[in-house]
Amino acid sequence: MRKASIVSIGNEILTGQTVDTNAAYLCERLFSIGIPVVSCYTVGDEIERIVRTLNSASDDAEIVLVTGGLGPTDDDLTRQGFAQFLGSELQLQDELLQKMQRFFGRRNLQMSEKNKIQAYLPVGTKAIANELGTAPGIMTEFSEKLIFAMPGVPSEMKAMFEKSVLPKLKNIAAGQVIVLRKLRCFGAGESNIAQMLGNLMHRGRNPLINCTASSGIITLHIIASAANNDKAQKMVEKEEKMLREHLGDLVFGVDEQTLAEVVGRKLVREKKTIATAESCTGGILARLLTDIPGASEYFTQGWVTYSNAAKISELGVQAELIDEYGAVSETVACAMACGARKKAGTDFAIGITGIAGPTGATEHKPVGLVYICVESDSGSETKRFVFPQDRDSIRFRAAKTALNMVRLKLQN
Fold it and tell me: Cα separation of 174 and 290, whole Å?
């Protein structure tokens, strides 16, 4: 299987002044045609470093895609590094120079003498047309490697890649297909899930299982490589079935599905409605629910009762409960959910109260402590959690956990 390596060149990337969106774009596009990216490098504008990086990238893969450093200024050194890597010299291409002069002429601009460097290519390489700018790309076959250099300007790079580079790569990738499916999980940490899967996450397998974590969502990437799409799809389906057998209710969706989307679909299917009563999450739970188009079918209303007075006046929480147990307690979370469900007349209601920090903690009630209650016809279910990290993470994690509790209630 042909593999690719990506090299991003530019001091501005290393200093953080420019975000390297080019590499992410190329990784995604290559993956879509069945070419896996095995390495990505970022290097500054120094010829020696560029040469070393090109050597490393060509050791990694049969295809090397380079972006950046093809401009006209003194810090644009990709073509010089390219020439040194190939053991050749730069040579002026009259056709490229004339094309560049016409580019400026059509715009009634005087071409700077510095732009002339962009008409130089390493001997033995070919130019790749740039229809949006003055910097042509560079293409060469070297020691059975295929190497492309493209501008760093994202619009120019994308246009050049799609028109001139991608068709060549599609021909090369004929007979190799990669299929990706994502399984989305919630309710266990990354390490716990890895423990449950055991050898299924070992490297070198096909399909390969990768794992990422974000705000409590664990995403398993099932990546199957095969000679054709049907075979790869069957491999993915078999692996997905095996993962679901291991993980059970931890799996809530596939690909880009969110917890709110899955919960919303279940509520519609069951013809159920829901309301929310939030304190520490400040309306985040209601926002997640209403981010889904068509949420009005099941979400009726929500309350953000941040103060004790609001909990009492809006939700009917008894002042004595707050005095005795505190606003952050299992009892008050339950009272909030019950009050919301009674006022809204819904099938489900969620009550959330907690300490998102950074202040407000006590010896017995730390930052991150959250109580979540789900109230329904089957009764009240209240759980205590202590979420780590910062204020925003705690609030979003609490809202997602509440959604997951409703999901499991609907499922079971």
Answer: 44
Task: Encode pLDDT of 157-211 as tens digits.
Answer: 999 999 999 999 999 998 899 999 999 999 999 999 999 999 999 998 999 999 9
C-alpha 93/C-alpha 125 separation (Å) is 11
- Measured between alpha carbons, how far is residue 182 from residues 20, 64, 75, 217 in Å? 24, 27, 41, 12
Task: Provide the b/e sequence for 154-178 (b: ≥16 CB within 10 Å).
Answer: eebbbbbbeebbbeebeebbeebbb
Residue 233: CB partners within 8 Å, gap ≥ 6?
179, 224
Cβ neighbours of 328 (radius 10 Å): 20
Helices 308-315 and 330-344 pack at an angle, to 10 degrees, of 40
Q: What is the DSSP string of 179-231?
A: EEEEEEE-SS-HHHHHHHHGGGG-TT-SSEEEEEEETTEEEEEEEEEESSHHH
Place of tokens 């995403």: 219
Phi-psi region of 386 (alpha: psi -120 to 50; beta: other; left: phi over 0): beta
**Residue 68 in contact with residue 78, Cβ under 8 Å?**
yes
3-state secondary structure of 91: strand
What H or E segment, with its residue span, contains residue 369? Answer: strand 369-376
Largest interatomic CA distance in the chain: 88
Between the CA atoms of 396, 402, 403 and 407, what dihedral angle is there, to the nearest 10 degrees? 150
Pairing of strands 299-304, 251-254: unpaired
Helix axes 391-411, 259-270, angle to 10 degrees: 30
List, as one string, the DSSP characters of 306-343: -SHHHHHHHH---HHHHHHH-SSSHHHHHHHHHHHHHH
CA distance 288 to 303: 14
Q: What tens digit of pLDDT does each residue of 379-405 get?
A: 999 999 999 989 999 999 999 999 999
What pLDDT score does 69 carry? 96
